[in-house]
């Protein structure tokens, strides 16, 4: 008999968004005519900006011509895209070495893949948070320690005295999924200083940085000293609408040295063994998104979602419902009304309004009693959802 990875048996039976889809399917079976509005999973709805599509078309045509056809892409990414990533960081006065940028097929995959280069560790995960951090660590049988996010700390937990004395891999997502809260510079300095003192490593998820409108940092590397203790993972999914295209990047600075071992070297070894890179067509699209014109076009789409967020915020404010997020973030994180639990409110909204959101408890125990609504829907759907919720809340 072969052995399986029994750590998988310690996971919840299915992934949060699969559970939600199952519930929608069951409801649809009984109510086939229900006009369901999906504000659950953070999936974009606007089409790609034209200049990105044009870039992809041109790149596809090159693949059909002998002289411009390309086979395997360079394993860590094309330099034209890595150079544009480098230039993008320059906007925030961050200097990244080309050699430290690794093009990926999205942030979620690399979040999990990164664990390949680590042994068993203590893992510090804020609760609530994006479920992938916890699940991938359960798969690796790591020792997970949660730090509490709650209304008292605006869902922005900071290191506390009880955490000293151990080293950790620390997951930070800012702007946060699901709470929409973002750490300011001072708060991130606390995390960087804690990581240094405890010989820990930060995995910083910057998937939502393009939503930032104020002076909170876009990158952990805006904090002095972070490049020796932090890996950053980013994505084109939300910024450029690439949820269906699949492209992201991971920064593993050559300056991270753990007991004489360079993490950058290990990650290169891992990637060259297990990954064959991202398609040329996708990388061209991503590099167009990072040109000055591309950023402008992508930001236009984000403005559309931000307007949805504004409408949702206005609505919950009017109803006297506590929420965070909606600023610097596509997510509104609200307290469930009428003292309902997260899943009760999910069911309530599904049945009374045919509106789908995401139960907060799916992001951790501290998410119980909270609920996430995304602004990634169409404006029409967002307005209709608000109209329907207005009748019952
Ligand atoms: C979410 O809804 O939390 C995100 O869409 C999930 C993801 O980015 O993988």
Q: Which of globular, elongated, flat, extended, rod-shaped describes the shape?
A: globular
How many E-type strands? 15
Largest beta-sheet details: 7 strands, mixed
CATH topology of the largest domain: Aspartate Aminotransferase, domain 2
Strand content: 15-25%
- Second CATH tier, the architecture of the largest domain: 3-Layer(aba) Sandwich
Work out the radius of gyration: 21 Å
| Each distinct ligand | D-malate
How much helicity do the residues have?
Answer: 25-40%
Measured between the Cα atoms of the first and last residue, the distance is: 56 Å
SSE series: HEHHEHEHEEHEEHEEEHHHEEHEEEH
Q: What is the overall pLDDT average?
A: 97
Low-confidence stretches: none
Please report the number of helical segments: 12
Looking at this structure, what is the CATH superfamily of the largest domain? Type I PLP-dependent aspartate aminotransferase-like (Major domain)
- The CATH class of the largest domain is identified as Alpha Beta
How many domains in all? 2
Q: Based on helices, strands and strand pairing, what is the structural class? A: alpha/beta
Strand order of the largest sheet: 2-8-7-6-5-3-4
């Amino acid at each position: 008999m072969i052995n399986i990875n029994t750590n998988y048996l310690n996971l919840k039976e299915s992934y949060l968004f699969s559970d939600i889809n199952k519930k929608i399917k069951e409801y649809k079976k009984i109510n086939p005519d229900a006009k369901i509005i999906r504000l659950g999973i953070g999936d974009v709805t606007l089409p790609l900006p034209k200049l990105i599509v044009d870039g992809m078309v041109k790149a596809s045509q090159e693949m059909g011509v002998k002289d411009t056809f390309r086979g395997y892409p360079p394993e860590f990414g094309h330099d034209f895209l890595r150079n544009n990533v480098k230039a993008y960081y320059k906007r925030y006065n961050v200097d990244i070495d080309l050699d430290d940028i690794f093009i990926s097929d999205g942030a979620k995959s690399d979040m999990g893949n990164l664990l390949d280069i680590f042994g068993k560790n203590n893992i510090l995960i804020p609760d609530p948070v994006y479920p992938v951090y916890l699940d991938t660590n359960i798969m690796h049988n790591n020792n997970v320690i949660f730090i509490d996010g709650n209304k008292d700390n605006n869902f922005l937990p900071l290191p506390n005295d009880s955490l000293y004395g151990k080293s950790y891999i620390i997951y930070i997502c800012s702007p946060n999924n699901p709470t929409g809260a973002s750490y300011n510079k001072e708060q991130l300095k606390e995390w960087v200083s804690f990581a240094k003192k405890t010989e820990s490593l930060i995995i910083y998820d910057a998937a939502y940085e393009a939503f930032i409108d104020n002076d909170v940092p876009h990158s952990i590397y805006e904090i002095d000293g972070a490049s020796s203790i932090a890996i950053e993972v980013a994505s084109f999914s939300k910024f450029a609408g690439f949820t269906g295209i699949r492209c992201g990047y991971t920064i593993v600075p050559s300056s991270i040295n753990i007991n004489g071992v360079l993490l950058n070297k290990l990650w290169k070894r891992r990637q060259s063994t297990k990954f064959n890179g991202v398609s040329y067509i996708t990388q061209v699209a991503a590099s167009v998104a990072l040109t000055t014109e591309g950023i402008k076009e992508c930001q236009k789409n984000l403005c559309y979602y931000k307007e949805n967020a504004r409408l949702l915020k206005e609505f919950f404010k009017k109803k006297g419902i506590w929420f965070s997020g909606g600023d610097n973030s596509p997510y509104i994180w609200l307290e469930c009304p009428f003292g309902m639990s997260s899943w009760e409110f999910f069911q309530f909204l599904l049945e009374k309004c045919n509106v789908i959101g995401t139960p907060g408890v799916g992001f951790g125990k501290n998410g119980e009693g909270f609920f996430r609504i995304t602004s990634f829907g169409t404006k029409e759907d967002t307005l209709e959802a608000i109209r329907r919720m207005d009748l019952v809340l």
